[in-house]
Design brief:
This protein folds into two domains: about 150 residues, Alpha-Beta Complex (Aspartate Aminotransferase, domain 1); about 230 residues, Type I PLP-dependent aspartate aminotransferase-like (Major domain) (Aspartate Aminotransferase, domain 2). The two termini are about 35 Å apart. With about 400 residues, it is of the alpha/beta class. The strands form four sheets. A seven-stranded mixed β-sheet has the order 4-12-11-10-7-5-6, with helices on both faces. The longest helix has 20 residues. Bound molecules: pyridoxal-5'-phosphate. Pyridoxal-5'-phosphate binds next to helix 5. The site of pyridoxal-5'-phosphate has 15 residues, from helix 5.
Amino acid sequence: MNVSVSIVEKESQYIVHTYKRSPFVLEHGEGMFVYDSKGNRYLDFSSGIAVNALGHCDPELVAAVQDQVATLGHVCNLYHTRPQVELAEALCEHSFADKVFYCNSGAEAVEGAIKFARKYSLTHYGPGKTFVAFTGGFHGRTMGALSITAREQYQAPFRPLMPGVTVAPFNDVEAAKELIGPETCAVFVEPVQGEGGIQPANVEFLRALRDLCDQHDALLVFDEIQCGMGRTGKLWAYEHYGVEPDIMVLAKALGGGLPIGAVLVTDRVADVIEPGDHGSTFSAGPVACRAAQVVLDRVSDPAMLAHITAMGELLVERLEELDSRHIKEIRGLGLMVGVEMDCEVAPFIEAAYEQGMILLNAGANVLRLLPAYIVSETDIDQCVFVIQQIITV
Ligand SMILES: Cc1ncc(COP(=O)(O)O)c(C=O)c1O
């Protein structure tokens, strides 16, 4: 039996069916490309859903991970290690934050933020305060993160969820004024919604959220799990808005492929947290932190951020030249680009595989383009050429 058939069959037999996977088996990657078990090459415009910021198997990242795993692979958080402290220092130096809490994934970072916000409001005001989240937002699949992810299809099978969550329409300042008040503990928002169809927040909206949180001593939490770490052409998406949060959650690109998440906080938040309040066995392991040090160092380089901006603009420009009655809108920031269609995009993604191209969706109708930051003009031309082919058939 050929390798890919047997792996696809065994996946169905042995792995819980939470994903509808592609029909091929990926075996190795290099730069912008991945290769399947039959030797087919795919230009990857998904980067592992905004994870592989430096592309596949970046030599500096690989060398750092190899060195670290051969030096000190894992110790738990009862001991000091250099990479976790040096990474936290760099994250704070490059952001609004004073301190960092580490974890292993996006949902786990959101759980941490929910707990820290709850502890802040309990410490200062006692019980009863609630969370505000927004339509179109996505914060993860664990119970707390799911509770602030207002999507019926994700929530319905798992109710009851965490109580005390109010959902407001995204980008609606007046509705936010109605819903954020003295009873609000924290407001969770993605500055650029990813899963929600690549929807950037309006400047007035994020500024209004900041003002409302200040007015009511609620914590403003930015979920930059997808839009942070350089993806939008600035290191943090919030820099486009001139608005800083009290808490920011990161994961995805932070480790460049190694699992690591982080909750960045101001001292005002950190001051209410005590030993034993929260933790995680695997978090801030030396290997993941070494990887993240390499990624942060590379993506915070102004030349890299300028490249992301230039390539993002070029991608949008080329997409706008496409001739298709199906395209409704092209939007995005940096290398986070959505093409909204008047039809379902799943068949286009299947067709792109045949053309050696990996694309993503965001919801049913949006093609989502999240290439690695090393993307070139040639890659963009190829991507747009393939999109033209698949949407005109
Ligand atoms: C904005 C945002 N928050 C949270 C998550 C959850 O991250 P993870 O899948 O690592 O749990 C995601 C994942 O897509 C995301 O895009």
